[in-house]
Amino acid sequence: MSRSTHARAILGDELYGKLSSAKTLVVGAGGIGCELLKNLVLSGFAEITLLDLDTIDLSNLNRQFLFRKKDVKQSKALVAAATAQPFNPSVKMHPIHGNIKEPQFDVGWFKQFDIVMNALDNLDARRHVNKMCIAAGIPLIESGTAGYLGQVQPLMHHTLHSSSETECFECVAKPVPKSFPVCTIRSTPSTALHCIVWAKSYLLPQLFGEEEDEGELDKAVAAGENASEIATLKEEAQAFKTVRALLRTSTMGTTDKAASAVFAKIYDQDINRLLAMSDMWKYRVPPVPLDRSAILEGAFVDSRNDASSGKEKDEAIAAGEKDGADSGRDNSNQAPTGAGLKDQKALTLKETVELFDDSLRRLAARIPREEIITFDKDDEDTLDFVTAGANLRAYAYGIEQKTRWEVKEMAGNIIPAIATTNAIIAGLIVIQALNVLKSLLSNPSPQAGGALARSSPKNVLIQTKPRAPLGVQNLCTPNPHCAVCRPVHVTVQCDTAKTTLGDIVKGVLGAENAEEPREVSVFEAGRILAEPDWDDNFEKTLDSLSCGRGTILMVVDDAEEVVDLAVCLSGLPESHPSDGKLFILPPNIPSLPKRASKPKEPTPEPPVTTGSKRRVPDDEDEDEIQIIESGAQNEAAGGSNQRTAKRLRLASSEVEEAMVDDDDEVIVLE
User: Fold this and answer.
1) Are residues 42 and 98 in the same domain?
2) Rounded to the nearest 5°, which phi and psi values hold at 429?
């Protein structure tokens, strides 16, 4: 009996044959990604490309089963592929350690795949993959989990503007994101909330929580695991053990030494260690190490003040990374805002260091009577420590700092990532992927798909209903007004260093054939590049306009009679002669369909009357909120299927809908 006997018997020869030729892209190798990769390898998917930007963290090991302690700090994609390969040696595995938004992963690159599966941990990357799949005409399986809840959503992009097309990830507006991934906050935070979670869930437990058992590391060495990596982990553990010992043996006169050691470890040595990993900062603005003594003496100089216009920062900004408006600012001498209220006072850098030292002394004084100290938002000492620790980290990474009151409000609740939920969702992803691939078979027989012969792609939700733990929904039709999937997409291969914006626009509009072009405006990610009465940028190269490979130019009809034209820029083929054309237009640019009529404005609600027969006045402080009914968390996790939602007017109150969009631990605001 061969390895494939059972899979072939279940799926049938036609569908199993499709798996042997299909090229699959998996984006993300975290909690869902590890489970998904294992399932794909064992199910018979013959060629898998796995892409992930992150490196393995110690906190990942309890649920991302393809990783071991020896793998900490290494690439998730590379290690996951190496670990899963022995499950089925015949599978072709192509692991990539990189950012899916990098220019080389353009539309042309996406077109090589038959299906894409998302196992991502942030909303921005999901939106990007959704756009690329639409442009490339590739079906996408979207997914996400939040605690015990989860969702799988097939998005059928390979039949654009046809009756079998489904909605895309952005056809329904998502609630404002209030949840953030934890798996990368220890290395590359990009928001203040990342820093708060780091200070609360990592720094505080490391200094005042349970001490880690080093015996496990010794066992790992004895078992033959990577000795150099284990040595690095031991060095890290020993560094924390040293500062923990200083805190526990310090007296009133030696606490300053302990505070200095902690500060140097976290904000100087650790940051310098990360800076040594140059690839990590290729598309990000690097952090700045902090010097405690210099800050307290008023002599600290922020190197970003001199380098803020340098090439490295420009490249990072061009790559779309958040660089923080205050990244190059030393606010140690600036007047704080909100000085009237202690909790709402914005501290200077020096005051933040002083608060860090003071809270550390108070917590150290509690150690004799409290061996383990945990965070409580009503505990002044731990709140001060988390506030100071988070703001120092935020300053180092060029992120906006928060007041004590904001930190207390944002600390929120941690929803734990549950390995079982990830495993269930990964299994459902594969089932829906098989249904999608079955729909791609040419001239399938009635028995095609074997056990799945009568099955079709569905949205599947994990619910909190004991009698119906899985909810199944039909796929929804596209939103006719969606700005992402309604445009007609074309791909233009070009040399962006030499091709001008005018070349592209005139080319796709037919100006080269002496046809009368329509009056259009050109946009790129919200930027206006050209308008009917302003075409100054037409003579500029695409590179000079920061429109490289992977960029999507939106050509919008000024009369708004037809849908937009999305022009996806891709690189020239490797075989293209050096003296050949600067750009290659698609052989056929489809005619643009009429734009859908705008929806009618809703009828205003009648005035609400009270018992005193007086009309309730319109209050500017009232908030119109959207309540998402059944399965709200599931839909937020991986894309919404809710076509309508009730609207509710609430006076003198505000409700924020939590958006959960990742497969790891998340922090949810209350």
Assistant:
1) yes
2) -60, -45
Query: Is 482 a known ligand-binding residue?
Result: yes
What rounded mean pLDDT belongs to the chain?
A: 79
Assigned token pair, 535: 């075409």
Q: Are residues 378 and 421 in the same domain?
A: no
Helix (H, G, I), strand (E, B) or coil at 315: helix
**CATH code: domain of residue 330:** 1.10.10.520
Residue 183: active-site member? yes
Q: Please report how the helices 255-264 and 227-249 are oriented relative to each other, as an axis angle in degrees rounded to 10.
A: 150
313 annotated to bind ligand: no
Residues 6+ apart with CB under 8 A from 39: 426, 427, 429, 430
- Pick the catalytic residue from 183, 195, 547, 568: 183
Phi, psi of 56 (to 5 degrees): -75, 135
Residues 139, 95 within the same domain: yes
* Radius of gyration for the chain, computed over Cα atoms and rounded to the nearest angstrom: 27
Report the candidate in 156, 119, 153 with the shortest Cα–Cα distance to residue 139.
156
Residue 132 is assigned to a structural domain of this protein: yes
**Amino acid 560: pLDDT:** 85
Most confident of 211-215, 309-313, 418-422: 418-422
In this structure, the answer to whether residues 15 and 151 fall within a common structural domain is yes
Shortest CA distance to 204 belongs to which of 409, 343, 393, 399? 393
Question: What residues make up the domain containing 49?
Answer: 5-181+417-473
pLDDT, greater one: 485 or 514: 485
Q: pLDDT tens digits, residue range 152-186?
A: 999 987 665 566 688 999 998 876 545 455 445 67
Give dist(CA 155, CA 134) in Å, integer. Answer: 9
Domain count for the chain, please give it.
Answer: 3
The answer to whether residues 386 and 436 belong to one domain is no
Structural domain ending residue among the three candidates 398, 427, 446: 398
Residue 343 labelled as part of a binding site: no
Confirm if 569 and 473 have CB atoms less than 8 A apart. no
| pTM summary value | 0.62
- Please, what is the Cα angle at 120 between 116 and 271, to 5 degrees? 135
In angstroms, the Cα distances linking 284 to 380, 508, 649 are 35, 34, 42
- 427 and 388 assigned to the same domain: no
The SS3 of residue 278 is helix
- The residue out of 425, 441, 473 marking a domain boundary is 473
Q: Say if residue 388's pLDDT is above 60.
A: yes
Q: How confident is the model at residue 213 (pLDDT cuts 50, 70, 90)?
A: low
Residues above pLDDT 70, as percent of the chain: 75
Any binding-site annotation on 125? yes
Look at residue 158 in the predicted model and tell me its pLDDT. 65
For 547-588, what is each residue's pLDDT tens digit? 999 999 999 998 888 889 999 999 998 889 988 899 999 888
Among residues 387, 607, 459, the alpha carbon closest in space to that of 151 is found at 459
Cβ 386 vs Cβ 401: under 8 Å: no
Task: Sheet with 520-524: list strands edge to edge.
Answer: 527-530, 520-524, 552-557, 565-570, 488-494, 583-584
Task: Specify if 608 maps to a domain.
Answer: no
Strand 92-97 to 149-155 pairing:
unpaired
